[in-house]
Amino acid sequence: MAGRIVAGFGVGYALMIAPVYTAELAPALSRGLLTSFTEIFINAGVLLGYVSNFAFSKLPEHLGWRLMLGAGAIPSVFFAFAVLTMPESPRWLVMQGRLGEARRILLKTSDSKEEAEMRLADIKEMAGIPESCTDEVVVVEKRSHGEGVWRELLLRPSPTVRRVLVAAVGIHLFQQASGIDAVVLYSPRIFEKAGIKKKSSLLGATVCVGISKTSFILVATFLLDRMGRRPLLLSSVGGMILSLLGLASGLTIVNHSEEKVGWAIALCILTVLTFVASFSIGLGPIAWVYSSEIFPLRLRAQGGSLAAGVNRMMSGIIVTTFLSLYKAITIEGSFFMFAGIATVTWVFIYVFLPETRGRTLEEMEVLFSKWRWTLDDSMK
Q1: Total domain count, the chain
Q2: Which CATH number belongs to the domain containing residue 213 in this structure?
Q3: Domain residue limits at 135
Q4: What is the pLDDT of residue 376?
Q5: How many CB atoms lie within 10 A of CB 80?
Q6: What residues form the membrane-spanning segments (predicted)?
Q7: Same domain assignment for residues 326 and 247
C-alpha cells in the first residue's frame, strides 16, 4: 500500500504536467497531435500491462503477482533518465523573465525563425513584457508560487475564466463519470457476467479491450488537427451512448435467460470493444488536450492541476463504488445509468465547448471571451 501511494504521487504529477508541458512546447498546428501522445502512451502501457499479466499468470502464483507489480519499475527508470534531457517550457521561462532561454527553445521547436519570433511575441504579450524587449533576462512580477491565481480561478473569476473553468473541469468530470474505468478495470467481471467462464478466455478478452483502446487512440491522433475537437468529441460520445445501451441490453438478456444466448454474449463483447474504441477516438485523449490548451498562461498550471484532480477523484469514485452499484441496481442497470450520464456529456460538449483547432494558446482567452452559445455556433 505504501508503494502504491508513492506511485500514485508520481502518476498524479505526470497526468497534470505532461499534457500542459506538451501543449506549451508544441506549435498550434500540431498541438492536438502531440498533446494526445500522453494518452497514446498511457494506453500502450496499459496494453503492455495486460499482455505481461497474461504471461505472468502462467507462473506459480506466489511469483506471478509480484512480477506483475514489479515490472512497472522498468519503464519508470527509463522515464527518470529521459526527463533529464527535456527542455523547459518556453512559456514558463518567459514568466520567469528568462527570455533568451525561451527564444532558443522556440527556435528548436518551430518550423522557422519567423514562427519562433511570433510565438515568443505572443507569449511576452500575455506575460506583460514589451514586445520590443530583447534582453536575455528581465525582471518580471513573480507568479511562480501562484499568488492570487487561486483567487482569480475560483473565488473571483471573470466571465471568461469562468467559462474556461466550466469547460475544463466539466470535460474531465464527464470523461470519468461516463464509466470508462468501470468498463476497463472490471472488464473480466463484465465478461464473466456475460457468460464467459474460462479463465484464459477472460484474460484474452481483456487483452482485446486494451488493443481496441490503444488502436483507436492512434486514429484520434491523426484526426485531431484535421477534423477539430468538437466533431470528434460529439461523435465519440455518441458512439459511447449507443455502446452502453447495447451492453446494458445484452447483459439484461443474458441475465434473464435460462439458457445460454450466444448472440447476446457476442453483443456484450462487441459493445465493450466499441465503447472503449469510441472513448479512445475522442473523449479519452481530447479531454487532456482541451484542458491543457484553454487556460490563460497565468492560470494554466493551477487550472490543469484542478482539472486533473477532478478527473482522478471521479475515477476513484467510479472504481470504488462500481461493485456496490451493480449489486444494488444490477450490472445492466449500472450501464443504463452510464448511458444516461454519457447523454448529458454529449449535451454539455454541444453547449459549452467551442472549437480550438489551429488557435495559439494566447488566443484562447479571446475565444472564450467571445463565446456565446447559439445554434449556429454549436454547428461550427
Answers
A1: 2
A2: 1.20.1250.20
A3: 90-140
A4: 43
A5: 10
A6: 32-51, 63-84, 202-224, 231-251, 263-290, 310-329, 335-353
A7: yes
Q: Both 192 and 96 in a single domain?
A: no
- Same domain? For 128 and 158 the reply is no
Q: How many helices (H) does the chain have, and how many strands (E)?
A: 20, 0
* 15 lies in some domain: no
260: left (phi over 0), alpha (psi -120 to 50) or beta: beta
| 3-state secondary structure labels for all residues of 196-256 | CCCHHHHHHHHHHHHHHHHHHHHHHHHHHHHHCHHHHHHHHHHHHHHHHHHHHHHHHHHHC
Instruction: List the grid coordinates of 371.
Output: 463565446
In this structure, the answer to whether residues 190 and 222 fall within a common structural domain is yes
| pTM check: above 0.90 | no
Residue pointed to by grid coordinates 477472460: 202
Based on the domain organization, do 129 and 168 belong to the same domain? no
Q: Would residue 335 count as lying in a domain?
A: yes
Mean pLDDT by 10 residues, the chain (380 residues): 85 81 80 76 80 82 85 86 89 87 90 86 82 81 62 84 92 93 82 72 75 81 82 94 93 82 85 92 88 83 86 90 89 93 95 84 78 47
Alpha-carbon distance 21 to 292, whole Å? 8
Q: In a 3-state reduction of DSSP, which class is residue 328?
A: helix
Q: Of 308, 306, 317, 245, give the one whose Cα is nearest residue 274.
A: 245
Map grid coordinates 532561454 to a residue.
101
> Looking at 78, 113, 140, which one is the last position of a domain?
140
130 and 276 housed in the same domain: no
Task: Give CA 77 to chain center in angstroms.
Answer: 24
With cell 471568461, the residue in question is 160
Give the integer Cα–Cα distance in Å for 361 and 166: 18
As a dihedral over the C-alpha atoms of residue 301, residue 302, residue 303, residue 304, rounded to 10 degrees, the angle is: 50
Residue-level length of the chain: 380
Query: In this structure, are 302 and 171 located in the same domain?
Result: yes
Question: How far, CA to CA in Å, does 213 sit from each of 209, 239, 275, 285, 340?
Answer: 6, 14, 9, 11, 22
pLDDT at 317: 93
Does residue 109 lie in a domain region?
yes
pLDDT for the residue numbered 379: 42
